[in-house]
Specification:
Length: 276
């Protein structure tokens, strides 16, 4: 228990009349631990080699031990139900107790010159006439077949040609016409940009990229309006004029941007996106 002698933080709040020792008895004396070296020899033991030669280990083998096995020889396996004489684990697992070999194993080809072996397997679909079950592997390097021209059917197919009318229909005439009017009419460019964004939901290709294009255009118009409004002492007419001019340029740029996005989708043969 701490007292006032351990420091001022242990002193009482009020000064006592007298300081007395606490009425606690002394602690018990701990027992003496046992000495681990008790009973150990006083001198360190020494080990010396034997005077007589040691006997050979081969002479210590008891005479009752049977003949040993030469480790250089292979183990002898007895043929049974689980170990067939066919020599493969698959054949051993599929062998019958009578010892009859299965009608087909993985080492046999799927087709033969006379009758397809696939027909002998149970619960297998019939092979169509002329079907190539096992395709021919690639020719070995250095052979004449290695330097032969590739198969015309496997050559690289050029991307499909996309015409301007196809891009016009994919972007939809309503969006193109609205953006065109917004690029011409300065006073209505902001309104026409918003109308074109609503009509852009009819574009069926790459809807996410289309929304990103309109989002960039709308954000640019808003930043220009806010910057002009603050710099010109909050004069609304100048801010609206600067934003309208920016919207005109955005409408013109969106015509080419949307045409490029849709043209790339048509060139790669992409399917129309499902409506959200």
């Amino acid at each position: 228990m701490a007292t006032w002698r351990d420091g001022p933080e242990y002193a009482p709040q009020q000064r006592p009349e007298a300081f007395v020792e606490p009425p606690a008895g002394p602690l018990d004396t701990p027992a003496t631990p046992a000495d681990p070296s008790a009973g150990a020899p006083a001198e360190q033991p020494s080990f010396t080699a034997p005077d007589a030669p040691a006997p050979d280990l081969t002479t210590l083998i008891p005479a009752s031990a049977g003949p040993g096995r030469d480790p250089r020889q292979a183990f002898e396996v007895v043929t049974s139900t689980m170990t067939s004489s066919t020599g493969t684990a698959w054949a051993s697992a599929h062998s019958s107790p009578g010892g009859t070999a299965p009608a087909w194993n993985p080492q046999q080809p799927l087709t033969s010159a006379s009758t397809p072996i696939v027909a002998t397997l149970p619960q297998q679909r019939a092979v169509a006439p002329g079907a190539q079950v096992n395709p021919t592997p690639f020719p070995a390097p250095g052979t004449p077949q290695w330097f032969a021209p590739p198969d015309p059917d496997q050559r690289f197919q050029a991307p499909a040609q996309v015409s301007l009318p196809a891009v016009w229909r994919a972007v939809t005439p309503a969006v193109v016409i609205t953006l065109g009017l917004g690029a011409v009419l300065n006073s209505l460019s902001i309104v026409l940009l918003a109308v074109a964004f609503g009509l852009a939901s009819r574009i069926a290709y790459r809807r996410k990229q289309v929304r990103i294009c309109f989002g960039v255009a709308g954000g640019l118009v808003g930043l220009v309006w806010l910057w002009t409004f603050v710099v010109n002492d909050f004069y609304l007419d100048w801010a609206w004029g600067a934003a309208s001019t920016t919207a005109q340029l955005c409408c013109l740029g969106l015509i080419f941007a949307l045409g490029l996005v849709v043209a790339l989708a048509l060139t790669r043969g992409e399917r129309p996106d499902s409506r959200p």
